[in-house]
Amino acid sequence: MKRRVSELLLKMELRGWVEQDGNLLSSRELATLLIADPLAASRFGGEFLLSWDGYTARDHFGILPGPIPAGTIFCSGKELGKIYPVVPAMPLEDAVKEAVFLRSTEGICALSGGVDSSLVAYLSKRPCLAVGLAGSHDLTQAHLAAEAMNLPCTCIEITLEDVREGLSAVIGVIPDPTPVNTAIAITQYLITRSARELGHERVLTGQGADELFGGYARYRTCTDPGVALARDFAGLARQGLRDQSVAALNGTYLSMPFLDVRVVRAARSIPAREMVREGVGKWPLREIAARHIPREIAFYRKKAMQYGTGIAKVLRMFARDNGYKRSLQGYLDQIRTTGGGA
To answer: What is the DSSP string of 167-184?
Structure first.
């Protein structure tokens, strides 16, 4: 048995990490389980793309990109099973703490100073990273949040040339280069580039919280928040493909505690109408956050990353400078078609 485990370890490829029943699994533990039963992977949690002996498995929500559908096990081109991690029902606060804990053994936390990233940063106790143009909202807010939570944070002032590099890198990689998608992708590119330069492969983020807890402005006025939440959650797969494709350019991947199966289950147990209160979205998450981080951070309403970093404004400037005064999309289409620089 030991020899078979050792042989499999030489052939097994794991991108990301795996847990079962709340316990992180080492490569040797994985090999032992998979030799006994390849379909043991059906119970795995975590964020992973795992290959061994002709089998391939991908985590339940497909956080890690791969050649097979999310949450499946394949062998020789055929689907053998689905991946459904068995997790206990737990209160939202416990679910968030468990999800962050499982991701806290390594990596750096992308901090923007809003409730989502600040809660992840505080609970994980990982070093933090913030990027933005000089004087940008996100750099200022991240610095203030890190100081308030007594966390180390590397704040990187990006330049116009950094944005040009990011645009050239992502324009041919992201599936739908709209102005919003492109600006977000450039932001993710510069965050993950900085993370790699600091020696980190895993980048913890607060993504998914807006879609789970009704963080967008439209939730304050929509007549059926349940339908809106379901629609936005379904769109996360495409967003994930965009962001992980960009992260891969820098040899990194994004880790998302709010998309842990425990957190999703707990969030879905909360009535959709309770996500917004007093005109403030993500109310259940903010209440929990206020028990761990300063209340002013928990209830702070920050700008979306593409605006908070200043990158969206720079893109519009690039477009104007290249003769596209009224059509940023036209400018992006031209770059994508010609393969030219910014």
So the answer is: HHHHTTTSSS--HHHHHH
Note the pLDDT tens digit of each residue in 246-277: 999 999 999 999 999 999 999 999 999 999 99
CATH number of domain containing 192: 3.40.50.620
Least confident interval from 69-78, 169-178, 216-225: 216-225
Q: Cβ of 271: how many Cβ atoms within 10 Å?
A: 10
Residue 131: give the domain boundaries. 92-311
Query: Are the C-beta atoms of residues 272 and 93 closer than 8 Å to each other?
Result: no
Residues 77 and 187 in one domain: no
Distance CA 156, CA 190 (A): 10
Nearest Cα neighbor of 267 from 255, 280, 254, 285 is 285
Which residues have C-beta within 8 Å of that of residue 62, sequence separation ≥ 6? 69, 70, 71, 237, 240
Amino acid (1-letter code) at residue 27: S
What is the DSSP secondary structure assignment for residue 22, as one 8-state letter?
Answer: T
pLDDT digits (tens, 9 = 90+) for 157-187: 999 999 999 999 999 999 889 999 999 999 9
Residue 46 backbone class (left: φ over 0; alpha: ψ -120 to 50; beta: rest): left
Give yes or no: residues 306 and 162 share one domain: yes
Pull the structure tokens for residue 213: 């807890």
Cβ 72 vs Cβ 57: under 8 Å: yes
Task: Return phi, psi of residue 132, to 5°.
Answer: 170, 160
Average pLDDT value for the chain: 94
Q: Which residue has the tokens 């913030």?
A: 130
**Crossing angle for the helix pair 236-249 and 160-170, nearest 10 degrees?**
110
| Pairing verdict, β 128-133 and 153-158 | parallel
* Band (341; pLDDT cuts 50, 70, 90): low
